[in-house]
Q: What sequence folds into this?
C-alpha cells in the first residue's frame, strides 16, 4: 500500500533553515506529483507547491516562493522541502501528499511539526 | 485566489443522524472539488473528489454533491468514527485552496 513517511519534529531558531523529508513506498515514486501542504495551529490547510520526481519540475504557490524549496531523490524515493529564513509564522505542521490526478491528494504523510523559537 | 467558505464551522450531531456540510466557492469551480477528513492528531484523508466521486475504501454513507459555486458533503447514519474535521478543496484554479474546515462532534 502507498505510504509516505515523514521526518520528525523540528525545533529551530529564527532566521535558520530546516529540511523535511518524505519517503515514499508502495508505488512508483517517479510517476506521481508530490504536494506539500502547511497547517498552522488551529488553522486550515495551505498548498505550498508540488514537485514531479520524474524530472524534478516544481511549481509553487506564489505565497511560498522564496520560502520553500522542493527537491526529490529518485534513488531513495524521497521528497524534500527546505524552508528558509524561518520566523515564528513558519511554526506549523507540514504534510507531503501524493497527487492522484489534478491536485487531488490521495495519500498523506503523517506530518512533520516545525516550531520556530529562540 | 478562490476563497472557499465552509459552513458551519462546528457541528454537534447524534449517532445515526444525517449530517450535511456546505462549501461555497467565490467563483465557479466546475465541480473540481474534493473533501478530506482529518481525525484528531492525524493527517487528512481523501473522501470525495470531482465533487461526487467516492475515494477508494471510503464508506458509502459519505456522499458529495453540488455544482458551480455550491457544494455539500453528506454523512448518512453518523458513526462515532466520523468525529473529525472536514475540509473542502478546490483545484479548478491556481493556487488550489482549502476551506477553513468544519469540526464535527458527537452530541
A:
Amino acid at each position: 500500500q502507498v505510504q509516505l513517511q515523514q521526518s520528525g519534529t523540528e525545533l529551530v531558531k529564527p532566521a535558520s533553515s530546516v529540511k523535511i523529508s518524505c519517503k515514499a513506498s508502495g508505488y512508483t515514486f517517479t510517476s506521481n506529483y508530490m504536494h506539500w501542504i502547511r497547517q498552522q495551529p488551529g488553522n486550515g490547510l495551505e498548498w505550498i507547491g508540488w514537485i514531479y520526481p520524474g524530472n524534478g519540475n516544481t511549481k509553487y504557490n506564489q505565497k511560498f516562493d522564496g520560502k520553500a524549496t522542493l527537491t526529490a531523490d529518485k534513488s531513495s524515493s524521497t521528497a524534500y522541502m527546505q524552508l528558509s529564513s524561518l520566523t515564528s509564522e513558519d511554526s506549523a505542521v507540514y504534510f507531503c501528499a501524493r497527487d492522484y490526478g489534478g491536485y487531488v491528494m490521495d495519500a498523506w504523510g503523517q506530518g512533520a511539526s516545525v516550531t520556530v523559537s529562540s | 485566489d478562490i476563497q472557499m467558505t465552509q459552513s458551519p464551522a462546528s457541528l454537534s450531531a447524534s449517532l445515526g443522524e444525517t449530517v450535511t456540510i456546505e462549501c461555497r466557492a467565490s467563483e465557479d469551480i466546475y465541480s473540481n472539488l474534493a473533501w478530506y477528513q482529518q481525525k484528531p492528531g492525524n493527517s487528512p484523508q481523501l473522501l470525495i473528489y470531482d465533487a461526487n466521486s467516492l475515494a477508494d475504501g471510503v464508506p458509502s454513507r459519505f456522499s458529495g454533491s453540488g455544482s458551480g459555486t455550491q457544494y455539500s458533503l453528506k454523512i448518512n447514519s453518523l458513526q462515532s468514527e466520523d468525529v473529525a474535521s472536514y475540509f473542502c478543496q478546490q483545484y479548478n484554479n491556481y493556487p488550489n485552496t482549502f476551506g477553513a474546515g468544519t469540526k464535527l462532534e458527537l452530541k
The interface with chain B takes residues 43-47, 61-63, 95, 97, 100, 102-111 of chain A (CB under 8 Å). Chain A has a mean pLDDT of 96.
